[in-house]
Amino acid sequence: MKRLILILYGFLLAHLTWAGIHTYTTESALSHGNIIKIRVKETGVHMIPYDSIKQWGLNPDHVSIIGYGGGMLSENFTHKHYDDLPPVSIYMHKGADNKFNSGDYILFYAQSAIQWKIDNNGFWRHIQNPYSSYGYYFVTDNLSLQRTITLAKDQFNLNDVEEIDWYNAYYLHEQDFVNLIDITGTNGGGREFYGETMNLKQNKLTITLPTSYARTDMKAHCNIQFAANSGQNTTASVRVNYAGKTETKKIKGLTDEHTRARLDSLILDVNPVSGSEQIFNFTFSGSTSNANAYLNYIELNIPCSLIMTGNEMPISSKTIQSKKPVIRYRLQGTTPQTQIWRINDGVHIEQIPTEYNSNVLTWLGDNTKVEQYVAVNTSSSTWKKPVTIGRVPNQNLHQLENIDYVIICPSEFVSPAKRLAKKHEEIDNMTWAVVTAEQVYNEFSSGTPDASAYRWLMKMLYDRAAGDHTKTPKHLLLMGDGTYDNRQIFRASISGANTLLTYQAKNSTVETSAYATDDYFGFLEDEAGVRQGVFIDRHATMNIGVGRLPVKTLDEAEYMVNKICTYIDDRAKGKWKSQILFLADDGNHGAHVETAEEGAKIIQNKNKDFLLTKIYLDAHTQEVSAAGESYPLAKNQFDNLMNNGVLFMNYSGHGGYNNITNELFMRTNDIRRMTNKNQAFWFLATCSFSHFDGGVSSAGEEAVLNPNGGAIAVL
Questions:
Q1: What is the pLDDT of residues 579-636, one digit of tens each?
Q2: 462, containing H or E segment
Q3: How far is CA 672 from CA 452, 640, 706, in A?
Q4: How far apart are CA 189 and CA 210, in angstroms?
Q5: Which residues face 508 on adjacent strands?
Q6: Any idea what DSSP says for residue 481?
Q7: What is the tens place of the pLDDT at every residue in 140-193?
Q8: What is the pLDDT of residue 669?
Q9: Per-residue model confidence (pLDDT) at position 696
């Protein structure tokens, strides 16, 4: 395995340690002071009144905001990343007395769970955080973290300026109603959720996007993404009419049982209509009665006149077609109290120097790069307000290093998690840390739930070891069940109170590609990045072992830990500790038997002391009765072996959420009734059997959750 040689400087600078391409503070911004956690639903300027700050018990004169909101963390370690929590620039409105007191407020720019970024064609594209519907920040009275908005000091060549009175606005329509892997909302998969449904009975759909002062003399760019399904050898069609232009997309029918829909998109470049709204009309047609289409989203990049609307107005500079390197913006409908803030990174906010004359505000901008602004009417009395989550105890995960074993869990499971960690300390001499998911989010994803926060915690520990195997983390345990519905969109899915996030592949239309995997958290090399739900380096090696206990309640966590500790403490000798079982399904031209044989040969070559038992259904006579097909002799042999105990059980063949083999060789109810004292490690090369991200417990989950038997672990 290729390992990056890490060099550590032998000094600390401002509490920073350096490893690889990343720096890590040793003292989190949450380690001291009074801290209040807040959340926002929308991107934009938010207000916190002076009186609220006082009610929280914070010193208003020292108030500061830290964090970076709800944008999804990069899955690629080579990308820029905030370590810990940066201070956010704030505007303090002090009133006529120029003192910050009752009736005054602070303003700050907040990032929601939806980000917008420029694509290679110069259009703004949105990114929905798949783990959260909100952005989070922290309010503290640590004066050293206070950062106020400062005046920008840009230098421009005034001989090379072009004046403009328009900008490129962007709008989004996106609803999350259905997951196409399972439209019931209980056992879906993948990151994408889809919105409005069209079919032969309801074949028309109208979507209205509110806009402001759209320019009809310039082209708008519209990106519409949708999914559709139809029967084999048939087609489904989606027709879109916008601003007098009609486009139709035909989608071929489904050709395999694992594909739920085909994803496609329509691009429209058209002069928008005048007025305050843009209307999209959809018409669906299908060749079969069960054909459907599902709208994913509408992204609209639209030129609009620079006319102030409301108390804040976002303004983007990209796609302005000009040969001039400097632009003079002319914003109408302003007041002397209107300010222009540059919000490029959403954290370091600068006020842009402006000139005001007769309700028109002008300022200069750099046309050689992407610039984002927001016009702010600072005298307004109406602002979006964040929701108060509550007080946050001081914490400092950034001080951790030289940890062998990390357990991440909901706060309710801390006690059994520590009990398990202490057992490994006792037996394996491991150093350990038990941390809550909330603590990890707070320091590594600005308080916003994000699965990559788990990975960044482990990345920090891995980098700090600097290649020293004695100091690198060895194991990560996620103590908590998971769900594909990380944002809790469907209330039918399992409750998120005691669950941990799952890493989901981006694909949400093909069942075999819409997988969840905890392996993601074990790839810690700098180059082991992920882009859009796909591993960039397919040859990367996991650097730590990763496991999950799919427990939902404290009782489940307690007896699961009891089960593991009993297994660890079992020092009694027995035949079962040398017994390995290989079970192979029938059919598929002997492929399942071949797979089992390959595994058996590996075991035999590695250790001759193991006792191998092979149960290959193709070697047995199948019986057919009114109850269906069965292999009674093979079934009895299997049951006897499992009841007496085996060290390792390997299965290759067909399976589902509730069983293995088409003959229902082992079902969920069978597993629940198991009372085998000597539990095996189950390794199954099959489908769905061990899903841990559905709304119902899979057979594999039931096997490890059985307090009286079943399996000690399932893979």
A1: 999 999 998 888 999 999 999 999 989 888 899 999 999 888 888 887 788 898 999 9
A2: helix 451-465
A3: 34, 16, 6
A4: 32
A5: none
A6: B
A7: 999 999 999 999 999 998 888 989 999 999 999 999 999 998 866 668 899 999
A8: 92
A9: 81
A 10 A CB-CB count for 120 gives: 6
- Stated as kind and residue range, the H or E segment containing 241 is strand 235-242
With beta carbons less than 8 A apart as the criterion, state whether 526 and 220 touch: no
Which residues are CB-contacts of 470 (< 8 A; sequence separation ≥ 6)?
none
Cα angle: 441, vertex 443, 448; to 5 degrees: 35
The closest alpha carbon to 165, from 70, 40, 304, 344, belongs to: 304
Torsion sign, CA atoms 655, 661, 662, 666: negative
Query: Hey, what domains does the chain have and what are their CATH numbers?
Result: 29-154+306-390 (no CATH), 166-305 (2.60.120.260), 399-569 (3.40.50.10390), 572-715 (3.40.50.1460)
User: Among 349, 356, 309, 302, which Cα is nearest to 329's?
Assistant: 356
pTM score, whole prediction = 0.93
Token reading at 20? 């690889």
Residue 523's pLDDT band (boundaries 50, 70, 90)? very high
In angstroms, the Cα distances linking 14 to 7, 165, 376, 446 are: 18, 45, 34, 21
Tens digits of residue pLDDT in 527-580: 886 765 566 666 678 999 999 999 999 999 999 999 999 999 998 889 999 999
- SS3 per-residue string spanning 156-194: CCCCCEEEECEEEEEEEEECCCECCCCCCCCCCCCCCCE
Measured distance between the N- and C-terminal CA atoms of the chain, rounded to whole angstroms: 23
Average pLDDT for the chain: 91
Could you give the CA distance from residue 537 to residue 520 in angstroms, rounded to a whole number?
12
CB 311 within 8 A of CB 299: no
Place of tokens 């100091």: 471
**CA atoms of 615 and 92, how far apart (whole Å):** 74
Cα angle, residue 516 at apex, residues 135 and 472 outer, rounded to 5°: 80
512-540 burial, b for 16+ CB within 10 Å, e for fewer?
ebbbbebebbbbbbbebbbeebebeeeeb
| Crossing angle for the helix pair 554-569 and 414-428, to the nearest 10 degrees | 10
pLDDT tens for each residue of 130-155: 999 999 999 999 999 999 999 999 99
Nearest to 351 by CA among 109, 110, 151, 106: 151
Instruction: Convert the pLDDT of each residue in 94-131 to its tens digit.
Output: 988 999 999 999 999 999 999 999 998 889 999 999 99
- Residue 117 pairs in a beta bridge with 125
| Residues 477 and 547: beta-carbon distance below 8 Å | yes
